Structure formats: structure tokens, C-alpha cells
Amino acid sequence: MMNSQAAPTDPFAGERLKESPFHPRQEALNLRDAWSSWNGYKFADYYYDEEYEYFCVRNSCATYDICPMQKYIISGVDAEAMLDRMVTRDITKLKENRVTYVCWCTDEGRLIDDGTIFKLGTDKFLLTCGSPSLAWLRKSAFGFNQINIEDASDTIAALSFQGPTTCEVLKRMGLEGIDQLKPFCIAHFSFAGSEDKPLMVSRTGFTGDLGYELWIDPALALSFWDALYAAGEDYGIQPYGEAATNMTRLEAGFIMPGMEFNEALKTIHYHYDQTPFELSLDWLVDFKKPHFNGRAALMSARDAGSEYTLIKLDIEGNKPAEESFLYADEGCMKEIGYVTSAMWSPVVKANIALAMVKTEAMKGSIWAEIYYAKELRHHSKVAKCKVQSKPFWAPDRARATPPAAF
After folding, report:
1. Res 196: pLDDT
2. Distance set, CA 363 to CA 71, 282, 336, 387 (Å)
3. Does pTM top 0.85 for this prediction?
């Protein structure tokens, strides 16, 4: 007699995290089972040790899963005009097979998110960003009739491949001409004997170092991973997670949502979000182009000046100034700002931080009140800060074409 009892269903199926196309390989390498989540995906905080993974990025090569990143294909005759109206940068200047960094704002000039736009064809673009933006894209498309917006977040698999030996590994994979790919450029390659070119490579990343982002059909994800790791075996290729990413992006001076800025559509308290000017992103705002979202408010903000400005700090000592308040005096009597991100940088050999400081106080003395623990006892110190104008880490190889062998 056949068992007619139905198989039990998972009552939490809709709440469980999705797994990236690369997950079977990453799961085997996540020795600590250190998983977090990003946009509904199971996502590695670290695999073995965050500092080890950091050094892999800075001294060899490593992969970071960006499948959870939001990816939207905007196509049609009106695609360029719609994006140009949505973002603050002039997209009409973007050439085919090029990538550019952008941000977009509310009508009040408050930052919604930042991301990158890839020009894939005359009327075809790819927008990538950290948080879901489909609703805002659809609102921004109002009035444009010849446009199509596709959420490709789950239909494009992607790895960020970063570090000084990445170009050598990709050459070993057979990506002919990869050494001639310039920063923020795109190239397409065949893979696994395919007649077409399913592998897209962009010379982009979030580490401030030499690196690439690799985009491929999810059906080819595991075979692509195997080929990449086979080519990179002699170079010590490793995966890295969010913890190491946060270290490398801070050294590069890159901003992170939830740390340097609050996304405007998720912010409740008045002016607890930011304008691009407060985040030192004024170079992304092009007032020479016609109307774009938030233009009038941003012009007013520019003319009025920002109350706070995001700056880079080199802080004396070796105690990271995490969540520290900043003062204009060593006695900590006049508060002038706060630290958003901080770390001791192994490669720079410095105590670095990003901080929001009152604009009027930027040229004066800046002191950080640092609290730290030592063997279960809590301590505090006051450390002098020096404003840095350039990224903490910006090696020549990140811009060189071709990159030198490492």
C-alpha cells in the first residue's frame, strides 16, 4: 500500500535566506560558519578570520560575493534621459562600455543611495546599488514612455575579485587583453568554449586597490568559480567577507550606508540623513545639466553651506576611535562632531577614521575622546587628530594600465 501522506512543508520557507549561485563553494570554505544576511541572501561576515582575509586582498587576491547587490537593467530610447534626470551626475557623458559612480536624492536633496551605472549599449544600462531601489526607479520613470526596467538582482551572478595579483590570475584564465582594461571600463569574454561572450568584466571594486568585478549567468556560476580558483591557486586565492570589505573600503575612504550616511527613504528624524555636500560628494553633483531630482534643494544647500562635512582623520596612537565624539579642545568641552568608521590600518600603519565634523570647525584643532577595553577594564584617552585630504590607501597599481606583475 502506497503511503499517501504528503511530505511536510516548511512553514518558514518564505522567511529563509536565499543562497547565492556560488554558495556551495563558499559554504565549504566558511570554516567558522560566520554568516550574516544582505538583501535576503545568506552572506558571509567572514570565512576564517577577517584580518587574514584583509591581508589576502592587500597582498594577493580574493573574491567577495556581490550576488546580493541590487542590479537593474534599464533599457529603451528613454533610458539615458530617465537616468540622467534621476541621478545628480551627467549620464549623457558616459560612453559605451564604461562605468561611473553616481548618487540620487529626494526632492529635498537628501541622499537616497549611491551606486554604479554601466553603459552596456546605446539604450541599455545596468544600475547596481546596495539597497532595493525598484520602487524609486519606477517613480523616476514616470513620464518616460519608451523605457523598460528589469530587476536582474537574481539573474546575474557576480564576484568582486580584488588584490594585486588579480590581473595575473585573469590572464592565466585566458582572458586575453584583460591587462589593457582601464579603470571603470568593461570588457566581455567567452567562457567554457561558448560561442557568445557570457562573462562581463569591469575594472571596478570597493577596496581602493587593483581589482575587477566579474558578472556571469547563474547557470555558469559554479564552473566559473572552479576555473577562477584553479587559475588563482598558485596566488593563494581566498574568499573574503563583509568584515574585511569594511576594512579595505575605509582605507580607500569610501562611504558605507548605515555608517557614513542614512538612506533618506529610511530616515525618520529630521535631517538625520545627509546631502551629497555633507558627504564630500559635491563632485558628483553637476549643476550644468538640466533638471534632475533634488536640483533646486541642492542648489540652496550648496549656497547655504553644510553644517557638517565628512572628513578623513589620522588619529594619534593605536586605539581605534570607534563611535568617538570629537572636540575642538583637549579638555573635551566643545563638541564638534563624531566618528562614523575607525580602525587601525595594518597597511597604512596608522589609526584612521572617517568622521562628520562641523564645517566651521574643520580648520581648527580636533580631538577624539576614545573609549576602549583592556582585559575587562574600561579606559579612555584623548587623542589629537589630523585631517587628511587624500585616501589613506591608493596604490599606483589601482590606476596603472597595464598593471605591473605582482
Report:
1. 86
2. 40, 19, 12, 9
3. yes
**Integer CA distances (angstroms), 147 to 104, 143, 365, in order:** 19, 10, 52
Nine-digit cell string for 34: 560566520
Give all domains of the chain, ordered by start, each with its CATH number: 16-69+155-252 (3.30.1360.120), 70-151 (3.30.70.1400), 307-390 (2.40.30.110)
Q: Rounded distance, CA 51 to CA 342, Å?
A: 15
In terms of C-beta density within 10 A (0-12 exposed, 13-18 middle, 19 or more buried), how is residue 336 classed? Answer: buried
The DSSP output letter for 18 is: B
> What is the mean predicted confidence (pLDDT) over 363-390?
96
| Cα 275 from Cα 277, distance rounded (Å) | 5
User: How far are the Cα atoms of 24, 61, 213, 270 from residue 199, in angstroms, in the given order?
Assistant: 20, 19, 10, 44
What does the DSSP 8-state code read for residue 142? T
- Whole-angstrom distance, CA of residue 292 vs CA of residue 106: 10
Task: Give the pLDDT confidence of 1-11 residue by residue, as tens digits.
Answer: 455 566 778 89
List alpha helices for 60-110, DSSP H: 79-86
Q: What is the CA radius of gyration of the chain?
A: 23
CA gap 8, 6 in Å, rounded: 6
The edge-to-edge listing of strands for the beta sheet with 157-162 is 186-189, 199-202, 211-216, 157-162, 62-65, 238-239
Q: How many CB atoms lie within 10 A of CB 219?
A: 11
